[in-house]
Amino acid sequence: MAYLGNPTGTIEVLQKYNFNFQKKFGQNFLIDPHVLDKIISAAEITKEDCVLEIGPGIGTMTQYLAENAREVIAVEIDKNLIPILEDTLSSYDNVTVINEDILKVDIAKIVEERNEGKPIKVVANLPYYITTPIIMGLFESHVPLCSITIMVQKEVADRMKVGPGTKDYGALSLAVQYYAKPEIVANVPPNCFIPRPNVGSAVIRLTRYEQPPVKVDNEHKMFSIIRASFNQRRKTLVNGLVNGGVAKKEDVLRALSEMELSPSVRGEAFTLEQFAHFSNIL
Q: What is the value of pTM for the model shown?
């Protein structure tokens, strides 16, 4: 059984199965063993761990995970990859492949059945278009998680860790930083993948907080305020929230004056603490 973490092994498997890349699934397979090692060490995978892998592809990272973890649950949406995974993972008895859309999987149930409800580690190489829904789904559903270590488009990784006042700052930055501590562990150039993507990628580790860094009375309310305030970036916070139907103008003005802030302030200037405070006043 060949290791897949190199171009030759990967190309052999793809040819053997006449595999066609699916544009709609944003498939790019990693072919650099150094990057794979970095992901495993960043995720701090040990023999105690149950790992959820999202999008195993042909099983490249899955092989590495299987050797380092106690158990791996790999969720793959593309049914054409299932026979390939059965082949490439045939020598591991600690891997379960589920052919399903991760957004529809009951992860809490998997954690309960496979890890006695204890927090799992998530590892993934995610296509750009689905990064945010997957990460938000994992956090908002409050599945027991230690960390999420993911390969994403470089600019998305940057967006997850920036603060107020930068152009990348937005709802994703705030949501990630409310739930987890983000840390970029590696930058990955396009030539580390087949097919070669048009943009650079990065591996980012999100270490889940036991308690969020800010106290907020109603999480759902705070996130609807955050989303509305970034929906129209060039507008003031007042206009964003009123137009978004999230709050009445007089309530927003009252909250701002209680926080001693100008009515012309923009959402992109608010820190997470300020959004929490603002949401609590409202």
A: 0.90
